[in-house]
């Protein structure tokens, strides 16, 4: 058997990263380092995620930092590490670093916080904060971060530049006075761009927007086109301002969707209550949650009653009640009443931490479309630069045309060519779709899975806990001759008392009396069959018909629909129990909604009896039903369906996260139901539906399709505009005005379009 070499996962917040093109360069360069198995830089979350193997050198981390700083000297690297092990760790041996993110505000609040910049673009450095940085204060001119103070200063500069340009244009000074006025206007509007271009050239980064805009506008001054030089720089700066505001607004909108992290906890010690950070609360501590506050940690209510708003975690609008004995999760909001809670999980292991980590890391698993755009931009930029150089040199040599005319055309061509609209808007589009899904209680572990949902044509369901409630009740007791009903129920309850299966719990609940655990020995769970245990010295078998057949015990099948649990004592048949499960009210609507949105085939796989499976399947309108399956048989059925699918079609498997791990892993898209607080579901699946509503599968597919539409609108719009303007620029029809619009203007429109992904609608059946 081939063993997969373990990899170590590391993450950094790239504080101060504002250039999508630079994010792409960082990803490309770090990916090529020795020992780096994979690298992803997400511009939307400003996160660098890297997996390394055993060949990664000890000095590798400092090399990564140096690489980032060489491309973006002002960026500070804040190492972000998670305590949870990913699904890939479970199946491929991945190991994660084990240090906590320093703080939520520090790691993600810089979406807002890094907006406090000095006028020259220098970022404020907190002297108490440890970070890895290059030259302090250097910033990239292509900035997409505009705080209120910076925006006011930018508007003031642009206003002064516009006023001076208007004076130069309207007042007939002439000569050196006209040049001086326009030069002052130019420096007010674009002096920072020229200065940044000089800095970038010194670092070996020539072909960026700062250089291109500086060269083009200085060229306009050189040939006496002062008004055009100033006007183009003004328009470029205004466009950059709007672009930055749009990107920041998009980021804030997305992060606001997951603003569920509790900031404080009311810790009760004796008779006193003090406000502390949730990270300082331990398991077993007592916390108090007042009306309007978020529950800071997972726990059990020990005093008080209240209604809990769970919408931030589940998307459910109907509050749920909490009373003594009820479990509450971090992120719930207390609507009324004061409750006292005993903490059952540390903050690092709480529901809200796991959900935040899952959503924040989702963008590191990039969709094929994102990877395509990255590869496209990587090859596209040098091709355009070479074409522009040829455009500037070849026509004048062979046609006798003036060099100045063709150099101007080449500069227009280069400004138009910047791929910013694609590398900025597409990650934001996917991240917006993931954010919209999370607001609906659907956690998608990566934009690759969001994209895969578009091609799902077959949805395979587990039955128990997925289409049915998993809340079993004993509806029939059928003892064999010489056995009373009460004795049969008692033996079944004792045999099943160590099992966590819903059927076992229903039998114990029906018995309703105290179970003497000391009388139960040699407990053994037989996968796909049932249980064998010694109860009061007698060997009790409790399970399905296959168990009886395996042990050679004659039995009979009682009448009625439901799950049958057969019992045998010391090799003699003792009777059977009938346990019934209710179909979820939402299940029929879910199947109908899937059919309406074009899912061609619905399949149900269950280990339950054929009669029960057929009854449930027919009521819901499921196309294919396969019953009495062992776990390995479910995998075989998925593989059979895989062999039947055509082209890009995908198969989704929907389970409750209990005993479904192999099938969730084998399907193209694994979807776990009822993931609220379920570690197994969150770890095993690609998509986690936080509630028990199967209709949200159709909603997830609807969100995926809307996101894909928005992403492809941006791709077609951006490339279409650029192709048209590149041709116009090459033929001398487009000027620098059109060039700036086709770069900055298109990016602004594409980013604003990406924000529509946040409002992706649910699909109703």
TrEMBL record:
Subcellular location(s) of the protein: Cell membrane
Gene source species: Paenibacillus durus (Paenibacillus azotofixans)
Record-level GO cellular component terms: plasma membrane
A Pfam family assignment: HMA
Signal peptide: none
Occurrences of domain HMA (ranges): 8-76
UniProt region (Disordered), positions on chain: 98-152
Composition skew (Basic and acidic residues), residue ranges: 103-152
Membrane topology label: Multi-pass membrane protein
The reaction(s) this protein catalyses: Zn(2+)(in) + ATP + H2O = Zn(2+)(out) + ADP + phosphate + H(+); Cd(2+)(in) + ATP + H2O = Cd(2+)(out) + ADP + phosphate + H(+)
Gene Ontology molecular function: any one: P-type zinc transporter activity
The protein's name in its UniProt record: Cadmium transporter
Ranges that cross the membrane: 155-173, 210-226, 379-398, 410-437, 715-734
Entry-linked NCBIfam families: ATPase-IB2_Cd, ATPase-IB_hvy, ATPase_P-type
Keywords, comma-separated and alphabetical: ATP-binding, Cadmium, Cell membrane, Ion transport, Magnesium, Membrane, Metal-binding, Nucleotide-binding, Phosphoprotein, Translocase, Transmembrane, Transmembrane helix, Transport, Zinc
SUPFAM superfamilies: Calcium ATPase, transduction domain A, Calcium ATPase, transmembrane domain M, HAD-like, HMA, heavy metal-associated domain
Protein family membership: Belongs to the cation transport ATPase (P-type) (TC 3.A.3) family. Type IB subfamily.
């Amino acid at each position: 058997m081939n063993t997969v070499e373990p990899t170590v996962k590391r993450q950094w917040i790239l504080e101060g990263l504002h250039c999508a093109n630079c994010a792409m360069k960082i990803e490309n360069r770090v990916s090529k380092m020795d020992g780096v198995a994979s690298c992803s830089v997400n511009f939307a979350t400003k996160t660098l995620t890297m997996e390394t193997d055993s060949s990664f050198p000890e000095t590798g981390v400092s090399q990564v930092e140096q690489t980032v700083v060489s491309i973006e000297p002002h960026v500070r690297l804040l190492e972000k590490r998670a305590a949870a092990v990913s699904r890939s760790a479970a199946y491929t041996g991945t190991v994660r670093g084990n240090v906590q993110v320093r703080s939520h505000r520090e790691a993600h609040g810089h979406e807002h916080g890094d907006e406090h910049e000095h006028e020259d673009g220098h970022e404020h450095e907190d002297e108490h904060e440890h970070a890895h940085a290059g030259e302090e204060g250097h910033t990239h001119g292509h900035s997409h971060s505009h705080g209120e103070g910076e925006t006011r200063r930018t508007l003031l500069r642009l206003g002064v530049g516009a006023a001076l340009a208007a004076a130069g244009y309207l007042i007939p000074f002439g000569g050196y006075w006209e040049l001086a006025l326009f030069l002052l206007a130019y420096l007010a509007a674009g002096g920072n761009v020229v200065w940044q271009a000089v800095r970038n050239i010194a670092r070996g980064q020539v072909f960026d927007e700062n250089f291109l805009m500086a060269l083009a506008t200085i060229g306009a001054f050189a040939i006496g086109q002062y008004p055009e030089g100033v006007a183009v720089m003004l328009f470029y700066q205004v466009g950059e301002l709007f672009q930055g505001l749009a990107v920041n607004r998009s980021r804030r909108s997305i992060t606001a969707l997951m603003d569920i992290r509790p900031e404080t906890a009311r810790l009760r010690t004796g008779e006193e209550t003090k406000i502390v950070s949730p990270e300082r609360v331990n398991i077993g501590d007592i916390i108090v949650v007042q009306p309007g506050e978020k529950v800071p940690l997972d726990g059990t209510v020990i005093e008080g009653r209240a209604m809990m708003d769970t919408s931030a975690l589940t998307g459910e609008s109907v509050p749920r009640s909490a009373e003594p004995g009820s479990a509450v999760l971090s992120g719930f909001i207390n609507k009324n009443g004061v409750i006292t809670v005993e903490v059952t999980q540390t903050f690092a292991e709480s529901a809200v931490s796991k959900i935040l980590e899952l959503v924040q890391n989702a963008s590191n698993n990039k969709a094929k479309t994102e990877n395509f755009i990255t590869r496209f931009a990587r090859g596209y930029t040098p091709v355009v630069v070479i074409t522009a150089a040829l455009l500037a040199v070849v026509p004048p040599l062979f046609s006798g045309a003036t060099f100045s005319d063709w150099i101007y055309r080449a500069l227009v061509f280069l400004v138009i060519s910047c791929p910013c609209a694609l590398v900025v808007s597409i990650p934001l589009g996917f991240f917006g779709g993931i954010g919209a899904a999370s607001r609906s209680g659907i956690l998608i572990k990566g934009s690759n899975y969001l994209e895969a949902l578009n091609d799902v044509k077959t949805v395979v369901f587990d039955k128990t806990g997925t289409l049915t409630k998993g809340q079993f009740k004993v509806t029939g007791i059928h003892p064999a001759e010489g056995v009373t009903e009460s004795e049969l129920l008692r033996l079944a309850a004792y045999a099943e008392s160590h099992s966590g299966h819903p059927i076992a719990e229903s039998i114990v609940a029906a018995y309703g009396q105290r179970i003497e655990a000391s009388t139960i020995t040699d407990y053994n769970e037989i996968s796909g069959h049932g249980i064998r245990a010694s109860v009061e010295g007698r060997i009790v078998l409790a399970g399905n018909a296959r168990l009886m057949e395996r042990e050679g015990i004659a039995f009979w099948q009682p009448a009625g629909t439901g799950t049958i649990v057969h019992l045998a004592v010391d090799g003699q048949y003792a009777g059977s129990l009938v346990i019934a499960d209710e179909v979820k009210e939402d299940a029929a609507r879910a199947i109908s909604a899937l059919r309406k949105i074009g899912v061609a085939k619905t399949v149900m796989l269950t280990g339950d009896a054929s009669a029960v499976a057929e009854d449930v399947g027919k009521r819901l309108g499921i196309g294919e039903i396969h019953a009495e399956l062992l776990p390995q048989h479910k995998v075989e059925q998925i593989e059979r369906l895989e062999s039947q699918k055509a082209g890009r079609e995908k198969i989704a498997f929907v389970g409750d996260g209990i005993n479904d791990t192999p099938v969730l892993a084998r399907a193209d898209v694994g979807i776990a139901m009822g993931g609220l607080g379920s570690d197994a579901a969150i770890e095993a699946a690609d998509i986690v539906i936080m509630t028990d509503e199967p209709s949200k599968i159709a909603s997830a597919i609807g969100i995926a399709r809307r996101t894909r539409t928005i992403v492809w609108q941006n791709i077609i719009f951006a490339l279409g505009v650029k192709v048209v303007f590149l041709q116009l620029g090459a033929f001398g029809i487009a000027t620098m005005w059109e060039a700036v619009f086709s770069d900055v203007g298109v990016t602004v429109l594409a980013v604003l379009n990406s924000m529509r992904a946040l409002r992706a609608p649910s699909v109703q059946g």
